[in-house]
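Re: your question from the hallway

Yes, I did run it. Sequences:
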Amino acid sequence: MSLRLEGVCVDIAGRRIVTGIDITVGDGRFAGLLGPNGSGKSTILKAIYRVHPPSAGRVLLDGADLLTMKPRDAARRVAVVTQEFVSEFDFTVREMVMIGRTPHKQAFSRDTEADQVIAEAAMARTGCEHLADRSFNTLSGGEKQLTLIARALAQEADHLILDEPTSHLDIRYQVEILELVSSLGVSVLAALHDLSLAAMFCGTVYVLAGGRIVADGPPRSVLTPATIRAAYGAEVLVIQHPDTGTPHLIPRRAQPEAGKAAYPEGHLCQPVIAADPLGPPDAS
Amino acid sequence: MDDLASTSAAEAPPGAATPSPPGRPAPARPAGRRRDRTPLPLVLGACGVLLLITMTAGVGIGSVPLSPAAVWHVIASQLSGHPDNTVAGIIVWQIRLPRVLLAAVVGAALTTAGSVVQVLVRNALADPFLLGVSSGASVGATAVLLLGAFASLGIWAISVGSVLGALAAMATVFLVSRQGRQLAPTQLILCGVVLSAMFESVTSFLIFRGNPQATQSVLFWLLGSFGLANWNQLPIPVIALAAVMAYLLAQARPLNALAMGAEPAASLGVDVARLRRNLFVATSLLAGVAVAVSGVIGFVGLVVPHIVRLVVGSDHRRVLPAGVLFGASFMVLGDLLARTIVAPQEMPIGVITAFIGAPTLIFLIRRRPYLYGATQ
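Structure:
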């Protein structure tokens, strides 16, 4: 099972947004799509889920053309989670997750017991079963994202597209969401903003700039100061994450002298890896 | 399948290197508002009983009061093929029953159209007349009333005029707001509002040029009435409502997906462009038929869908059938009040629907936490 983009180009309103995109996501792999704002990350994802059909190139699922499939059949293979959003309508979490069954249901067909079981399992898997009867609009950003992932699970697709799923979330949910997604055993293609988080979870990353892929490969070899400078026009320091050994990117100020003045010499370089003096939160 | 050399070496199976998700701390917020959904058969049963009560009252109450037993006796004898030619029989069968049935069908049609338009444009303030149907119909009806257009059609002239006006307006909004294959909500709202204003200026111009007496009948028509109801008016609205409702119930799941937004709906396998086109035509058809038989009855298509969602939630498999029954009851009650409050005169029903609709909605909003369009 694999998702492949071959030479995908997308035009919107007569303007070329992305050009010659080649991406492969192998079975059960986690691939990251990185790049500055406006570089075309979302456009590529929308080409896959039919919002912006490509003007050239192909999107292949196990070698078959995804975009000529019936929309329903495609939706049974590829599920999508976008940034958390506000629903105009008042659905409960359970109703929301049940909507994930849409591509599996015929007109007039009822929710069967099997559908209920799938929805309950999806909520249990994402840890939002205690929210089942809550109104979606009352949830926090992280809880909403868990619900949308549960909806994608209820869709029973083996490929998951994520468009900046952690952008508005606090640090706990940023990690928790990506941890959850990477443990699902499905193939994932995710547009991500946080480069260090991407490095922790992605097997392969694709770096976009100006609608083209400028670098791809394992995070360790791609996420270098030179690549980041070329793609983002930003200066970063890259260190190794003490736990995972993956690259961790630290932004640098344009005027480093101004930043130094506020802190004693050497303060910034002390690695802070110490036991939490209060212990883990669930111990108390 | 990994053809790119760069991917094959580096990608480890996910989950292998990462620990299982850490124990989640207790929820930071107290368990919030629960939504317990009443079972649908119970809701439909209650709405059905409500409709029977309001319809019986609608037929029974009037200048000649009739008991519910008398009302049902007349209906039963008519249905069993023994026409009741007493005064009561004629009042029930010839005058009040067709009027009550027409009010019920129009109420159901406007509620259905309103529920769907609110999804189509994803806007809580949308009503079935947003897309230009009513203002176009007004131009047609005004032309009939003031200029004598279609005079050869007799009593059907107003209906024909308003349907033609509605069709013209609907086609204009459709063509102007279309971008490629897409009907985008914002374009629909803007084009609908702007073109409605233009059609209304045409109506105003016709009224301005017309004679005062004809102007009064135009104003009465614009506020809506079931005063001219008869059996011949019923079949077309009933068929339109049945056909559109069958389509919408078949599309109830895609409608729920579309309520999430166009992109989530696309990712759930819905052909969004086609669904939106069909919804546009279906709702315009319902609103146009309603306007043709009863004039422009405001507020029902806006407020009743909200009341229904407050009770049954937003799942269209529940909203649509409950809306038909509740919208019908609401309109029958409104018409009953319109013709009894200032009897022997009749008030335009639009006055009543707004007057009871607005406080009902405000009461429900204040009683239950209603989150329609709320941010958090």
